[in-house]
Amino acid sequence: MLTIGKLGIAAGVKVPTIRYYEQIGLLPTPDRSAGNQRLYNAKAQHRLAFIRHARDLGFPLEAIRDLLSLSDTPEQYCAAADVIATEQLSAVKARIARLTALQAELERMITQCAKGTIADCRVIEVLSDHELCGEGHGARTATRCAP
Amino acid sequence: MLTIGKLGIAAGVKVPTIRYYEQIGLLPTPDRSAGNQRLYNAKAQHRLAFIRHARDLGFPLEAIRDLLSLSDTPEQYCAAADVIATEQLSAVKARIARLTALQAELERMITQCAKGTIADCRVIEVLSDHELCGEGHGARTATRCAP
DNA sequence: TCTTGAAGCTATAGGTACTAGAGACATTAG
DNA sequence: CTAATGTCTCTAGTACCTATAGCTTCAAGA
Ligand SMILES: [Zn+2]
Ligand SMILES: [Zn+2]
Ligand SMILES: [Zn+2]
Ligand SMILES: [Zn+2]
């Protein structure tokens, strides 16, 4: 049986985070020592490691909640788990696409700056007027004002 | 002079967001009509468009605050603005790198799944044990438990 | 002119995933 | 035994909004 601090070290999770996971019901309420301190068994350690790993892979806590309940029913088909992972992959891909567009815009504005005064700074200029952007990132509507 | 709704449409920003920006001091307090409704001039519209565009490029609000105050002093050197943009570029690059690693891991675990039961699902298996991952994403500490 | 519906007002609370701090109790090493 | 560290509960804060409730104001049609 581990105290919360040891468990945190073992799983690479900070102590308040463990208590938070317990609070939101992601970890079951553990046994307590005579002095009211939390004591964790190997099962809890596995569960926390699972959560931690899924968080490292970017899964949101709600998805992790679903994955955990799936992993508690090993005889079921795994399609639901694969759906969650596939959705996460889509989300990651979408974020990469968006960030790559942003990267291009940022690089362009930075390299075009002549390093003079604010009045001539290409960074400020482009931020003031999306028309100066390449077609990369999606401003949901026009940010250009009437001249 | 525009009401808040028209301004929101013109700049592509939702009405509560405009009020929020005012609340945190990113937009100045506008004039009010006789009936206490906010009225915006072209200057405010430009400022909001600037904020919106910078948000679209992923700048955090604090960085935008700095960029706005820089753009109000056009005779200064633009080095500070370029630093902010360069930092943002670095942040974007770092996120892309991390997400790309996650993408690889997710793709691997999904394609390796045999579409059977949870007990054999590669997705659940890999989440349970970071050792099954490629060296891609960084788990900050071991998530593997003693057997 | 009256009415109705949309738009605006304030204030508060919620969402995500934690993190930090205060003040009190428990455990452990020397 | 004492001092240092660990743990307890509770609250509040981070970033960036979004949603709701209950009210007032405005613009247009009958
Ligand atoms: Zn510049
Ligand atoms: Zn743009
Ligand atoms: Zn599977
Ligand atoms: Zn891993």
Q: Overview of this structure, please?
A:
- Two copies of one chain form a homodimer.
- The first copy, chain A, is mostly helical and 147 residues long.
- The first copy, chain A, has two domains: 69 residues, Multidrug-efflux Transporter Regulator, Chain: A, Domain 2, CATH 1.10.1660; 54 residues, no CATH class.
- In chain A, strands 1-2 form a two-stranded antiparallel sheet.
- The radius of gyration of chain A is 24 Å and the shape is elongated.
- At the A-B interface, helix 1, helix 3, helix 4, helix 5 and helix 6 of A face helix 1, helix 3, helix 4, helix 5 and helix 6 of B.
- Bound molecules: zinc ion (ZN) (4 copies).
- One zinc ion sits at the interface of chains B and A.
What are the salient characteristics of this protein?
elongated; DNA-binding; homodimer; 147 residues
Question: Summed up, what is this model?
Answer:
Chain A is mostly helical.
Oligomer category: homodimer
Q: What is the element string of chain A, with H for helices and E for strands?
A: HHEEHHHH
Supply the CATH architecture of the largest domain in chain A: Orthogonal Bundle
Low-confidence stretches of chain A: 140-147
In order across it, which strands form the biggest sheet of chain A?
1-2
Helix content bin of chain A:
55-70%
Shape of chain A: elongated
The rounded distance between the terminal residues' Cα atoms of chain A is 70 Å
Strand content of chain A: under 5%
Domain HTH merR-type (chains A, B): 1-70
Protein name (chains A, B): HTH merR-type domain-containing protein
GO molecular function (chains A, B): DNA binding; DNA-binding transcription factor activity
Organism (chains A, B): Puniceibacterium antarcticum
